C-alpha cells in the first residue's frame, strides 16, 4: 500500500500486540525471555529473528525506526541515544584509521568538535570546506575519502547545498554522501530521493517537537545499516530508550503539520525582522534575497522554522536582545513548539576556535531563533524591546 506523507507519520511502523491497543505500546524492559535454551541460542546467533536485549532489540524502538524510514523514503533506520551518537555510530561503523572525511564548515559546533578533535585521535582525518562551494568539495577529496558530510540548511545561517550535485560528486569518487536533515526533517526535504546515501537526525529537535527527550537516528539502505553500523551499535550501546522512542513516535504523528506551521511563522518573522533598523542582516531561505532561495524552493517543500539575524553592536547588542525577552525560551535547543533564542558564538558554536567561527560566518552579533507556534505577534512583541533598547 502506498501512503502519503501525513499517513506515514501516523500509521507506518505500527505493530499491535495481542491486546490490540490503538496507540503504540511501550516495552520498558531490559531483556526478553525465551521459550527454551534452543530458542535463546538461535536468537543470539541470528538464526531466528526476535527480541533479545533492549540495548539493540526493542519493539518500541523498532516501531520508531520503521516509521522514520518510511517518512524519509529509506529502507531502514537505526535509532540512537542522541543526534551526536548517530553521527558517531555512522562513522565508527563505516570508517577506519586512515580514512578521510570532507565536511562543511557550516555544521553544528559539536559536530565540528567530534570530527576535528575526537576522531582525529583515532586516525580519521577531516577537511572542512565552504558548504556552497562545489569546487572546494571536489578539491578536498583524496583517494582515501570515504564520506562527504553536511547539514542543509546549515546551523545557524541556513545556507544550502545542492544535494544532487554533491551526491554525484561523492559517487564519482567512490565516497558516500551523508546529510544531516535536522532543520528540514522528511516533512520538508528527503535527501535520499536526491541521491544522498545516508541521512542523520537529532530526533531531539523537530522529530520530538516539544523538547522532551534526547535521541538520534540514521536512515538509509538496509544492508549498510544492518551489516556495518548496527554491529557497532550493538557492541558500544549508544541506543535509544523505549520510552524516548515512544515519545518520538508521538512527535512523528504531527511532524508534517508542525513543519508547515513552523515554516509559515518563520517567514512572517523573517519579513518583520527585515523592517527593523537595528537588524543588519536576516538569514532565511524563504526570503527572495537568500543566496540559495531558488535551490531551497527546488529541493525543499518548505523553508523551515529557523531564522537567524545579525544586530548592530556585536555581542553586547545581541545579549541585550536575549535578556530583554520575557516569553521566548533562552536555550540552545531548537525545533520546539515554543520559540527559542540563542547566541551561537557563545553557545552552540562556543567550543569552536575564533578562526573556525569566522570561517563558518558565526559573528558576535548573530542570533538564532527557532520559531515556535505561539501567536506571531507575541513573538515579535517579545523581540522588540531588545531591538529598540526599551524594556
Automatic annotation (TrEMBL):
A GO-annotated cellular component: cytoplasm
Gene Ontology MF term list: carbon-sulfur lyase activity; pyridoxal phosphate binding; transferase activity, transferring alkyl or aryl (other than methyl) groups
Quaternary structure note: Homotetramer.
Protein's organism: Spiribacter salilacus
Reaction(s) catalysed by this chain's protein: O-succinyl-L-homoserine + hydrogen sulfide = L-homocysteine + succinate
Gene: metZ
Protein name from the UniProt record: O-succinylhomoserine sulfhydrylase
Positions of modified residues (N6-(pyridoxal phosphate)lysine): 205
Lineage start: Bacteria, Pseudomonadati, Pseudomonadota, Gammaproteobacteria, Chromatiales
Stored PROSITE patterns: CYS_MET_METAB_PP
E.C. number: 2.5.1.-
Superkingdom, taxonomy of origin: Bacteria
HAMAP family: MetZ (MF_02056)
